[in-house]
């Protein structure tokens, strides 16, 4: 489960652009692309993205861990 992929997908589903997210995060568009490319995200950055996109990516990640443990 890639949180960066899920957040990128959610952004598109909501009809927002990378430029919009960058403005919400107070960073550049380039930095948002770098965030999406990372394998690991800082929890503080992820928390901010969760709030902005109104999505609990922490829960998604946790649910995925449970699925992996059962498999």
Would you write up a description of this structure?
By secondary structure, the chain is mainly α. It is built from five helices and no strands. It has helices at residues 3-13, 18-25, 29-37, 43-53, 57-70. The protein is elongated and about 40 Å long.
Put the structure in a nutshell.
By secondary structure, this protein is mainly alpha-helical.
Write the layout of secondary structure elements.
Blueprint: H1 3-13, H2 18-25, H3 29-37, H4 43-53, H5 57-70
- How far apart lie the N and C ends? 14 Å
Q: From the helix content, strand content and strand pairing, which structural class follows?
A: mainly alpha
Order of helices and strands: HHHHH
Biggest beta sheet summary: none
What portion of residues belong to β-strands? Answer: under 5%
Return Rg in Å: 12 Å
What best-fitting shape do the alpha-carbon axes yield? Answer: elongated
Helical content class: over 70%
Overall number of strands: 0
**Average pLDDT metric:** 90
- State the low-pLDDT regions, or none: none
Give the helix tally: 5
Question: What attributes characterize this protein structure?
Answer:
mainly alpha; elongated; 71 residues; 0% strand
């Amino acid at each position: 489960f890639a949180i960066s992929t899920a957040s990128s997908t959610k952004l598109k589903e909501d009809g927002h652009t990378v430029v919009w997210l960058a403005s919400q995060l107070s960073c550049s568009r380039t930095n948002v692309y770098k965030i999406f490319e990372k394998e690991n995200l800082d929890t503080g950055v992820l928390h901010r993205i969760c709030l902005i996109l109104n999505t609990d990516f922490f829960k998604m990640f946790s649910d995925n861990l449970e699925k992996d443990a059962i498999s």
